[in-house]
Write a structure and sequence with these properties.
The chain is of the alpha/beta class and 612 residues long. The chain folds into three domains: 280 residues, 3-Layer(aba) Sandwich (Rossmann fold); 233 residues, Rossmann fold, CATH 3.40.50.2000; 60 residues. It is built from 23 helices and 17 strands.
Length: 612
């Protein structure tokens, strides 16, 4: 990985004369991981560039109103360019993205530009041999978005390029449409393009067990045609080749870009995180305990209707991310858990693991039995609290009146109504059925890869199983009726995150886990795991376990993962607390305050390479 240095960073004087824009389909539009990259990086970029920085995104998501505040009061060059566009009748807005740092942002409405789609498509075909598929909503949105962004840069360059350097930093193929045309027209803009994953690589990895060994042999054109993604791949290649500076997020993906995009990256710009967002000062151990209690409540409702186990000896593990069964390592995780379950039973371990799979898969509704169980636990809690109040009140009066100091029979203090209600609540809740492995009714239950493995391995939450499975096919939020906490709070309540990805250009989930003081497992086929191996000494002491998926086959990687988890299970509570302390402390290595230096290096290189 290229190392950042103070010599390669953009100077303060250069910043004062530079207008920096970042263009992404996920700016103020939460779709995937790039949203997190942009949002978390904003405070560090604002600290350097101030009002010389602006983002550009699509005005397409109805939820944008909660994150965007229209405001034309600052009169920056970006604001002036927007006003010129508005005078010409374009549906474009300017204001603040309501995240930490409150950056300037331009939002354009691609669907207001649909009447120009034919013209844009013709230019892409005529000039760059990019044919646009008809009728695909996302691609047509992206093409129209690119057309409006190109107009914005033409105006910005015409009005301000004589006094300022202009850097346009595009993220991913969905933002890359304007790049080849800007280069063709020689618009005075320095162009940086960052790919966070190649679209072809993601498809190939899902379908080829030897993806990394076959990289140099793929014919990108025929493979793109096979997967029906030629349009996206050609846009991505045109953006990579048309940029003045081409970057990606990890050495793993840099190797992929060389063969699938046909251009070696100029720089690797690793992803960071805004550590202040996660900082809990000295409270993160208390927060772990608080949110673990919330997960205990879920566990009682989900499992204790069928059988119970010792919550003090229960550890909560989780994995999360988009539903890519192989790419995200869900397959390897399940295989390792099956082996771990056998190891724990063989060793007669008194611990229980509850493993959560948090992802988004098509479902009809929350399972009625699961909802009923949670409702009955809530009713049981209300009943017990009422009995507690009644017993406490009667006990107080009896103790004050009695002559001796013996403890009275507490059963006598509960009236028949509450005794009956208590019995009926338990009777309605308790069952002989096994706890469900999935919390929702799936749309395609019989073809769900996770469920099929769980059933074939018989890891169906039997009482004797040491490893219990909870598959939750939706992301966790405070409005979730089963958890009632935010995802980051859920993470804090867990003990270990497991992310042994097969294809993961970076991997925010283990980094977020680390920043929350939760140890995690990753793989060296993820950008994060590869970076950790190369840059963080004694990383296992800092709560990061890296599974070798570069040199080991699936079977050996599964064995290593099972052994790593088994090793973690040997730690007592004191050592787990110490490990959480070390994990949280090590997360500072990934603070954007340090990692934005790589982007500064890219911007400095872009300015030096372009002379208009």
């Amino acid at each position: 990985m290229a190392k950042s240095s103070t010599k390669s960073k953009i100077s303060k004087r250069a910043i004062e004369r530079t207008l920096l824009t970042e263009i992404s389909w996920e700016a103020c539009n939460q779709v995937g991981g790039i949203y997190t990259v942009l949002r978390s990086k904003v405070p560090s970029i604002i600290e350097k560039f101030g009002d010389n920085y602006c983002l550009i995104g699509p005005y397409i998501n109805p939820a944008v109103a909660t994150e965007f505040e229209e405001d034309y009061s600052d009169d920056t060059p970006f604001c002036q360019a927007v006003k010129i566009m508005q005078q010409s009748g374009f549906d474009v807005r300017y204001g603040k993205w309501l995240v930490t740092g409150r950056p300037n942002i331009v939002l354009v409405n691609p669907r207001s530009f649909y009447h120009k789609l034919g013209e844009i498509k013709y230019m892409l075909w005529e000039h760059h041999d990019i044919s646009i598929q008809e009728g695909e909503q996302l691609i047509e949105d992206v093409v129209a978005f690119g057309g409006l962004v190109k107009i914005f840069f033409n105006i910005l360059a015409n009005e301000f390029a004589s006094k300022n350097k202009i850097i346009a930093h595009f993220h991913e193929w969905m933002a890359g449409i304007p790049i080849p045309e800007l280069r063709l027209e020689n618009v005075p803009v320095s162009i940086v393009f960052t790919t966070h994953a190649t679209i072809l690589g993601r498809y190939l990895a899902m379908n080829d067990d030897n993806f990394y060994n076959h990289l140099s042999f793929y014919n990108w054109d025929s493979e793109a045609t096979k997967f029906n993604i030629s349009t996206q791949v050609k846009i991505e290649r045109a953006a990579a080749h048309g940029s003045h500076v081409f970057t990606t997020v990890s050495d793993v993906t840099a190797h992929e870009c060389k063969y699938l995009l046909g251009r070696e990256v100029d720089l690797v710009t690793p992803n960071g995180i805004n550590i202040e967002r996660f900082a809990a000062l000295h409270e993160f151990q208390n927060l772990h305990q608080e949110y673990k209690e919330k997960i205990h409540e879920f566990t009682i409702a989900h499992f204790f209707k069928s059988y119970s186990f010792d919550l003090d000896n229960t550890l909560y593990f989780y994995t999360s991310g988009r539903y890519e069964y192989k790419n995200k390592g869900f397959d390897l995780t399940l295989e390792a858990l099956a082996r771990l379950n056998y190891m724990m039973k063989k060793e007669n371990m008194d611990k229980t693991i509850v493993m959560f799979f948090i992802t988004r898969a098509p479902y009809e509704s929350i399972n009625a039995d699961v909802l009923h169980s949670h409702a009955m636990v809530a009713e049981l809690r209300r009943t017990v609290m009422s009995i507690e109040q009644q017993v406490g009140r009667n006990l107080f009066y009896t103790a004050a009146e009695q002559k001796d100091n013996k403890l009275p029979n507490l059963n006598e203090f509960v009236d028949d109504y509450w005794k009956l209600r208590f019995r009926r609540t338990l009777q309605s809740w308790k069952t002989e059925a096994l706890p469900a492995v999935v919390t929702h009714n799936m749309q395609n239950d019989s073809n769900d890869a996770l469920l099929n493995f769980i059933r074939s391995s018989q890891m169906i939450n039997k009482k004797e199983d040491r490893v219990k499975i909870v598959y939750h096919p939706d992301f966790i939020s405070a409005t979730n009726p089963l958890f009632g906490i935010e995802y980051k709070q859920f993470v804090r309540g867990c003990h270990l995150g497991i992310f042994p990805s097969y294809y993961e250009p970076w991997g925010y989930t283990p980094l977020e886990s680390m920043a929350s003081g939760v140890p995690s497992v990753t793989s060296n086929l993820s950008g994060f795991g590869d970076y950790v191996e190369k840059n963080i000494p004694n990383y296992e002491d800092k709560g990061v376990y890296v599974i070798d998926r570069q040199k080991q086959n699936y079977d050996r990687a599964a064995s290593q993962l099972a052994r790593s988890i088994f090793y973690y299970l040997q730690l007592d509570r004191r050592h787990r607390i110490e490990l959480r302390n070390s994990t949280e402390a090590a997360s500072v290595n990934f603070d954007w305050k340090y990692l934005t230096a790589y982007y500064e290096q890219a911007y400095n290189l872009a300015i030096k390479r372009v002379q208009f």
